[in-house]
Write the structure tokens for this entry.
Amino acid sequence: MGHAGGRTDERELVPTGNPQMKTRAFVFTLLAIGLLSAVPADAQQKEITVWSWFVASTMQKSIKAFEAKHPDLKVNYTYYNYSPQYLTALKAAAASNSLPDIIGLQPGSFTQQYREQLAPLNAYAAKEWGDNWTSQVFPVALKQLTMGNPPNDTNYYLLPQECQVLCIWYNKPVFQKLGLSVPKTYAELVEVAKKLTGGGYIPLYQGAADGWQNENVFLMIANQLAPGLAEKAQAGQAPWTSPELVSALEAWSALFKDHVFQEGALGARAYPTGAQLFAQGRIGMMALGSWWMQESKFPPPLSQFVQNMNGFDFFYFPALKEGGQISPPVGGVDIGYGLTKNGEKNPEAWKFLASLVKGEALQEALNDLNDLPSFTGFEPQGDITPNIKEMYNRFIADLPHAENQRIAHPEIGQELDNVLAGVASGTVTPADGLKRVQDVTDKTLK
Amino acid sequence: MRLPAYLYVLPAVLLFVLFVAYPILWVVCESLYGAGASHPGGFVGLNHYWQAFQDPVFWRVLLNMFLWGAITIPVQMVLGGTIAYLIERHTHRSKTFFRVMFFLPVITSVSVVSVVWSQMYAPYYGIIQEYAKLIGLHLSVSPLGEPILVIYALILVNVWQWTGFSMLMYVAGLNNIPGELWDAARIDGAHGLQLATRVIVPLVSPVTRSLLLLGVIGTLQTFPIVHLMTDGGPDHASEIFGTYIFKEGFVIGDTGYASALSTLVLVLALGLSVIQIVFLGARLTPAGAARR
């Protein structure tokens, strides 16, 4: 009886036929789901929202370290591919006033586009690290923080997390196999490229379809011929048509004509193609920067060259023109973060930003060899081999003397990219190209 | 009695206003205001439009768009139509296999297509280079890096990707031709070129017209393949409306000029659509063709 009675009760409870009952059950279920989902897993946790193009796996480590120290806070990170996803997402969010608390930025033009939506960080930083905090930032990074600000605006709208130094990486085993050594002159560079090509390798891989890689190489050359002149030119304090810059553009053109760069470079991309080929050992040299060390921290399988960076070392461009000098270190902020006006209303947001640039979150990024710190006194910890440590120390030693690699105004940067491609393809002469850049600079700074 | 009818269309009207009409109006208004270095702040009237007509890149973009449409649309039609005819009339058991194979590029991610084709074009490590080696050839340039060749190299990729769509449309068109017409044509002795030009082409003309309309709209909407493969370079040689507007609006931040360019594209698209509708009108569909 009990069993039978039980089954009967169940049948009565389950509304199988009555439509009204069905509707009520449906509504109750929806309400229950709604109520359950409205209650956060941990009602005490406060959320901080962050958008960036920063490597997601490394950022998750940073977030984990931050949340371990601040168990009452939860960081919600959204990763975007830089272009076009991140650029469009930021633009749309800025237009609809729905930016997250913290956004990833680069100094100069990128930050300037969102200046109106960003909070000045000077007071936050001074309160957190003391009035003298700027003395702990590498000079090139500090200089870049106010790039493009209106006159007399000394506010910092982003704080730098990581810096980089540009260089030419080369594959050591390939060089050894072909009996090559690091070139000390331009003639030697051409000869090395020739031997690499003859040996079946890509000589100096240039992803010249990427404007950023062209800019990096050009600035390395320009700064060896006249340190700091390109920076003055973009600020309107020197003409782009200066003989030294024309000479730099001629040297840039020669790298294509003399087949130092691989044939077909103008149609090639640095990422993913170039990086993959370089990691696989099919390229002799590639113009990248200190961030290349992170390849050794990516999930296996890794090539023999990438493992502990055993197959790689770096050098700076030798003098590309007679009477010139070796390229000085060129670099600056790799990535920084800004606190949005929305983030200003979230009292917890600054804590994560501070951690990202000078705290446990930064330390995790450095441990992953993502790049170099922007503040002094940090170094990667954990599983770092002596080989990597030695290269890291060389970069850190060069960073304080690095020349600026950033262009403050996007109009000037875009035109420089176009001209570099035009000169490389032979459709624009160096002098005409730099006249074009000068015209855009005049118009922009007017 | 009319009120309920209006209520039925209200949701569609609201969606149209919210997601189509309002954004268009917003972009048009934005084009009249300054933003960016060239026209900082304030009402600038039609200055951005004047700037566009004086901008050599704008004319380069127009030329590239013309080449894109003039080559892509007819080539895709001819290839798609021929493939569809061969599949529908000359294959039996393998019909589905070939349809799927030729349609596969259409559903392949543009990112994958762009990476694969960039590598195919590349000297040193490209697939084309590997085959060229077999006959002793050495590629010394990538067409993506040659200002004269780059737009054609991109058009080739686009044709490869979208020919399957034309094929599918023609497959539907060919299957709409009644069996009696094929029989009648055969009895009348039509074959080869005669069959193609006198029977097939006129009967699938509604599909051709639809493809023409879609092709023009698709041309003006082109963006990802160029953005991913060349980003409009080198030095604007492969610049199209999509990449140029993106750079002006999202990279440089000159939303006023980018909006003016977008408005010009809209006007161009409207103009071309009106011309096509006036000349082709209701004859875009097989049903419309029957009403001729």
Notes: The longest strand of chain A covers residues 159-171. Chain A touches chain B through 41 residues (CB under 8 Å). Residues 19-38 of chain A form the longest helix (20 residues). The two ends of chain A are 95 Å apart (CA to CA).
